[in-house]
Write a structure and sequence with these properties.
The structure is a homodimer. Chain A is mainly α. Helices cover 70% and strands 4% of the residues of chain A. About 5% of the residues of chain A have low confidence. The first copy, chain A, binds a DNA duplex through helix 3.
Chain lengths: 162, 162
DNA sequence: GTAAAATGTTAGCGTAGGCTAACAAGGAGG
DNA sequence: CCTCCTTGTTAGCCTACGCTAACATTTTAC
């Protein structure tokens, strides 16, 4: 079942709302996606037709098992891409969020897996002592240290927010 | 001027046809993009309205200066992304071609520049002698050598084709 | 120079997914 | 219990961009 980019965004948002507030409502989905309620209304009907959510007119919106599995995949893909953008390419976090949104749709599951592996390879390299210093842009070990520092910094900031 | 993904693909193909055969024709564009002629017909009108191509009914299709500049940018972006996919992530070339097509639309000019820099950084690292051998997956120097080898191999194969 | 083939165009359909305007349902306070 | 506000829905419009069927023009081949 090939979903559209927008359907994937809906699933993602529904999942996030379900996990954070317990339920998803048309108005909240519309706010999150910055679109109007009628647009959401039509979209959730299409997702219901695909058995990805359960929903009755004026009723609650809930992901089905299948819908939740897909939502989780989408979110994981999003996070991998965003991590690459922010921690490796040093793209500004807000921009990265937007770009990851559309890039994830373009990226196959296979490529996503490869990107994930690549990121962890970069992060987990065995230490190589740099012959110069800890900030040598020509040295992969230094680059790795820089990337690791960026990553842990970002994680801390996230914790502070929460 | 924000173009759609499909408009960008049209520009790219028109540029390639212009450079390789001297001119672009509706039928050739349709074949390249695997769509029908009426679809192309409508698209070139929209590009003409944006002053990106010059064209009259039943006449020749030519990129304007502006159109050509944009086409070149699009192609460059495509190549950068494809290089990342093929030479660094080791995605199969055909898959990479398809993914680059849609990914480039999602990627901002700024991020593209960052990706370009990242690729050249990986390629141009000063040599670090690996303490093990030339195929140590934990060693960035070895990884770099592997990536470089992949790249030059691919370039050779391209030459052989041409 | 004309007939056939290739090429280009028009008209109109379908889907996806935004939008607004207008209406319907449900809950909270007086 | 009724009114009002929030939330949800319906109807219908618009754009982008595929498609087919049918028609027009141009090129080619004899």
């Amino acid at each position: 079942m090939k979903l559209t980019n927008s359907q994937e965004e809906y699933l993602k948002v529904i999942y996030i709302l379900e996990k954070s507030t317990g339920k998803s409502r048309v108005t909240d989905i519309a706010k999150k996606l910055k679109i109007t309620k009628p647009s959401v209304n039509r979209a959730i009907k299409s997702l219901r037709d695909l058995d990805l959510i359960e929903y009755e007119v004026y009723g609650e919106i809930n992901l089905t098992y299948k819908g939740e599995e897909i939502a989780k995949e989408i979110i994981k893909k999003h996070d991998i891409i965003k991590m690459f953008l922010v921690d490796i390419l040093e793209v500004d976090e807000k921009d990265a969020e937007e770009e990851a949104k559309s890039m994830k749709y373009a990226m196959s599951p296979d490529t996503t897996k490869k990107l994930e592996k690549y990121i962890s390879k970069i992060m987990d390299l065995g230490d190589l002592d740099c012959e110069y210093d800890k900030n040598n842009p020509k040295c992969q070990s230094c680059i790795k240290v820089t990337i690791k520092n960026r990553l842990s910094k970002r994680k801390e900031q996230k914790k502070l927010k929460a």
